[in-house]
Amino acid sequence: MKKAAFLIFAILIANLSFSQETKTINVDFNKQIGKMYPFWAFFGADEPNYAYMKDGKKLLSELSALSPVPVYFRAHSLLNSGHDTLSLKWGSTNVYTEDANGNPVYDWKIIDKIFDTYLQRGIKPMAQFSFMPEALSTKPQPYEHAWKPGMHYTEIFKGWTFPPKNYKKWADLVYAWVKHSVERYGKAEVESWYWELWNEPNIGYWSGTVEEYCKLYDYTADAAKRALPTIRMGGPETTGPNWNKAAEFLKVFLNHCSMGKNYATGKIGSPLDFITFHAKGSPTVVNNHVQMNMGTQLRDISEGFRIVTSYEKYKNLPIIIGESDPEGCAACGMKTNPQNAYRNGTMYSSYTAASFARKYALADHFKANLLGAVSWSFEFENQPYFYGFRDLATNGIDKPVLNVFRMFGLMSGQRVSVKGNQSYTFEMVRDSSVRGKNADIDALASKDVNSAAVMLWNYHDDDVKAEDATIELNLSGLPNKTINLQHYRIDDENSNSYEVWKNMGSPQSPSKEQISTLEKAGQLTLLTSPVYLKPKNGILKMNVILPRQGVSLLKMDW
């Protein structure tokens, strides 16, 4: 039976070896280069209230199930005024109001509902002190926005972006929320969360100055530490470290935390337990097709790492890339923003595989303590199927990109050496993206005690049809034992609900039978049946045929 399975596998790969593009990739499982730490297990969304909706709860459960470690979830608008508002790029909890005499009134019902939903599914919060309650804003009106896809991004910035009219009341709110969390969830649980202040204060999300942000951080961190001295507090969640003004904001903040006078305590410095910034790519439409720009995103990461590690005091602090995505607007669908048409299909999958591998490489290069990279992609309730939002699932149907994270979840242990005959280095992708004749055909590999894995991708910035690539894969450093090999695949025919949906006629009201078919198509699937192989002197050689924008995972167990 084992010989038969091997022959089937050999025939499959032999019969697919007619591609014009042949690449060689060598993996040495004996040469470790670093831990296969799951920094990818971080996700987020603008809309916090979606978490406890039907499809939100389903997706949170799936995220928890695919990860070997607790997944962290970051959301905006956790302190916004309003009641359960389910709008794009908005959320509300109505935590803070004031009575007729101006005394604070706290109401934890909605925020507890959000965090209860996380914790019931094994998800941990990146708890964000944001944004300004209406009763505390220095310019409260107008407060809530009415943004819709197609409107200018700046239309969202209203009264919730302003500094507090009373910093003591803000600090009291921070203190009360942390105290309430400890009482509800326990000290040990809350200690395991990451707490932060605001989002992208270097652009319209913050209508104050950088000095006012530092002041707000001082009051926030002081109040949080008084409520729970062991709390993990960080910031500043600036976006675009490769922009001059954004880099300056980040540096001003780090200098302030290191040696500035604390606005709340009068002492020197402010507590900082981890550092955050954002990195985004920049797709466009060229000659009627989407052209990605991974280099733009990687340059932001590179410069962010360089800035943080240049501080002797902070070079070893954990770094969380608070949003790390191909572009900047999750709620901008492909109908209003055609450059976002990459999101439903395999382009998003291959981009994710290739870019996350370069995040590992950049962290290694700068010796940066990369703890997390938040994929700002979740789901949107009550929206059209496959509208082209940057999400992981649509109406409960998993999209191909979610299967890349399922693949990452099958990799563990230590990252090992990968070398190819034409591989793009991380410097090449960072500096010039993937725009040349050759695609980025490369791999990320790991080895654990009784398993190993190789993730392969065939990526190019230009989303155009191309010949399949034949990859000559040489694996060394394996045990001389019988190995069970499972080959998972994401391409147009595998692990791809979008292609199945299109073949159904793109229904916006699918039947129960169609929904069941789509749910099954959204799962990570095997390209072939598992096979048993026996390395010779620790070596296996095989060919893998990989379509453009396809991703494979070879999972080996013994």
TrEMBL record:
Keywords: Glycosidase, Hydrolase, Signal. SUPFAM superfamilies: (Trans)glycosidases (SSF51445), Glycosyl hydrolase domain (SSF51011). Residues 25-521 form the Glycosyl hydrolases family 39 N-terminal catalytic domain. Residues 1-19 form the signal peptide. GO terms for molecular function: hydrolase activity, hydrolyzing O-glycosyl compounds. Pfam families: Glyco_hydro_39 (PF01229). InterPro entries: GH (IPR017853), GH39_cat (IPR049166), Glyco_hydro_39 (IPR000514), Glycosyl_Hydrolase_39 (IPR051923). The active site is at E200 (proton donor). GO terms for biological process: carbohydrate metabolic process. Belongs to the glycosyl hydrolase 39 family. This is Beta-xylosidase. It comes from Lacihabitans soyangensis.
